[in-house]
UniProtKB/TrEMBL annotation:
Gene3D superfamilies: Cytochrome c1, transmembrane anchor, C-terminal, NAD(P)-binding Rossmann-like Domain. Keywords: NAD, Oxidoreductase. It comes from the Bacteria. This is UDP-N-acetyl-D-mannosamine dehydrogenase. One of its GO terms (molecular function) is oxidoreductase activity, acting on the CH-CH group of donors, NAD or NADP as acceptor. Signal peptide: none annotated. Belongs to the UDP-glucose/GDP-mannose dehydrogenase family. It holds the Pfam family UDPG_MGDP_dh_C. NCBIfam families: NDP-sugDHase, PRK11064.1. Residues 325-427 form the UDP-glucose/GDP-mannose dehydrogenase C-terminal domain. It comes from Serinibacter arcticus. One of its GO terms (biological process) is polysaccharide biosynthetic process.
């Protein structure tokens, strides 16, 4: 006869272990801790664990610092290198892709291996990491392979573990708002697992939480980011077309978007971050013959940084000792995240192709250049005014508020060659 999960006694706070204290795991741990749970955040990085236990956040995310500091001070949140026992395990580890663009599930596997010995039966395990279809089932199978005494459905009288997928879908820079206001999609390996996961997220999410199966939830997340990637690829292709026909792409898109059923995103220097530049490949890897448009959009967006580099090199080739101010390294505005950043890729490529140039990088969100740039003697990290004052070419790569709102006449931009990849200084 199937066993039902062991209910958590109402007198005790739910114990939640959040595996991975990154951009998603730490906000999730903090918000659960402030909504009634006792949370342990588990991470392999001792520096991250130490920072969180001091009530500090090791990256920039508005409002997260206050929440983490409060939860740690109230002893509702602590961090650990060791997996504890818990009622709920939330897996929020990276799922990068390998050279062939298929997902590298080694962090998910490591999390499953660490969780498995802590299970007694009755726990809920939620995968939040963005994952190809089938990953939640894979995680469950990996646990059950070493815990044959447990089951997903009570078969053979074995205690149940509930396993579900609840993909994160919050926008970096707005995480603390969107965790509360965005709808969540939950997919269970069993209907019970899905409903139990929904109850967990209902403790802090004020929006709707529809429940489906795990594979549909997995694909939903990938489709959201692919939709955005295809739309940005369309915008980047329009920018290329406009260059050829001599039209201002920003004005073109603004005018086209006045149609009530047209909503084109913005062209830029390429698509970065760990989500939109990665997730579409998981669909392509799952259905290589079928996902033609999704693959093409990735290729279109991946080609943009190279075109930006060519434009800057063409300007620099007209100067004997060119000085370039490169504004921004992050993958999007007002954050310190340099992962998969086209700006970073562009600066690295310029440094290679223009060894005789001086490249001054302005990035207000970092204090040291990333490893591939710090070793280049002709690349320096500088402040905005100094870098622009010395530059022949000003390359705007990231629309950080500090750049967009800078007094352009004070910076003397009218005297410079300006390559504005974001359309932020269009009225120059
Ligand atoms: N970008 C453009 N043009 C645009 C919008 C964005 O070039 O019009 C570029 C950005 O500069 C950046 C990249 O795209 O390099 C991605 O930025 P983003 O703001 O579009 O998205 P992310 O990667 O920060 O967050 C996305 C979000 N997904 C969607 O909006 C569908 C977020 O909700 C997800 O939670 C996140 O991916 C994730 O973790 O998957």
């Amino acid at each position: 006869m199937p066993l039902t999960p062991v209910p958590v006694p109402v007198t005790r706070r739910q114990r939640v272990a959040v595996v991975g204290l990154g951009y998603i795991g730490l906000p999730t741990a903090a918000i659960l801790a402030t909504h009634g749970a006792d949370v342990v955040g588990v991470d392999v990085n001792p520096a991250t664990v130490a920072a969180v236990n001091r009530g500090e956040v090791p990256f920039v995310e508005p409002d997260l610092g206050t929440m983490v500091a409060g939860a740690v001070a109230q002893e509702r949140l602590r961090a650990s290198l060791v997996m504890p026992e818990a009622d709920v395990f939330i897996v929020a580890v990276p799922t990068p892709f390998g050279p062939d663009h298929s997902a590298d599930l080694s962090y998910v596997d490591a999390a499953a291996d660490a969780i498995a010995p802590q299970l007694r039966g009755g726990e809920l395990v939620v995968l939040e990491s963005t994952s190809p279809p089938g990953t939640t089932a894979h995680l469950a199978q990996r646990i059950l392979a070493v815990r044959a005494d447990l089951s997903l459905d009570g078969e053979g009288g074995r205690p149940i573990i509930d396993v579900a997928h609840c993909p994160e879908r919050v926008l970096p820079g707005r995480v603390m708002v969107e965790l509360v206001t965005n709808d969540r999609v939950v997919g269970g390996l069993t209907p019970e697992a899905g409903h139990r996961a929904r109850e967990l997220y209902e403790t802090f999410c004020q929006a709707e939480i529809p429940v489906t199966d795990a594979a549909t939830a997995e694909l939903t997340k990938l489709v959201e980011n692919s939709f955005r990637d295809v739309n940005i690829a369309f915008a980047n292709e329009l920018a290329h077309v406009c260059e050829r026909v001599g039209v201002d792409v920003w004005e073109l898109i603004e005018l086209a978007n006045r149609h009530p059923r047209v909503s084109i995103l913005q062209p830029g220097p390429g698509v970065g971050g760990h989500c939109i530049a990665v997730d579409p490949w998981f669909i392509v890897a799952s259905a290589p013959e079928e996902a033609q448009l999704i693959r093409r959009a990735r290729e279109v967006n991946d080609a943009v940084p190279g075109r930006v580099v060519d434009r800057v090199v063409a300007h620099a080739d007209r100067l004997r000792a060119p000085r370039i101010a490169a504004l921004g390294l992050a993958f999007k505005p007002d954050i310190d995240d340099l992962r998969e950043s086209p700006a970073r890729q562009i600066v690295a490529s310029l440094a290679q192709r223009l060894p005789h140039a001086r490249i001054d990088v302005v990035e207000p969100f970092i204090t040291a250049l990333p490893p591939e740039l710090v070793t280049q003697p002709h690349v320096m990290l500088r402040d905005l005014d100094g870098a622009v004052a010395d530059a022949d070419i000003v390359l705007l790569l990231v629309d950080h508020t500090a750049f967009v709102q800078a007094d352009r006449s004070r910076l003397g931009l009218a005297e410079k060659v300006v390559v504005d990849t974001r359309g932020a200084w269009r009225d120059l």
